[in-house]
Amino acid sequence: MSNILALTSSALGEASVSNRLVRETIAALRETDPALTVTTRDIGAEPVPHLTVDSATALRGEPANAAQTEARALSDALVAELQAADTLVIGAPMYNFGIPSTLKSWFDYVLRAGVTFRYTEAGSEGLLKGKRAIVILTRGGFYSEGPAQAMDAQEPHLRTLLGFIGITDVTFVRAEKLAFGPEASAEAITGARGEIGSLVTAAA
Question: Would you say the pTM of this structure is higher than 0.90?
Answer without folding.
Answer: yes
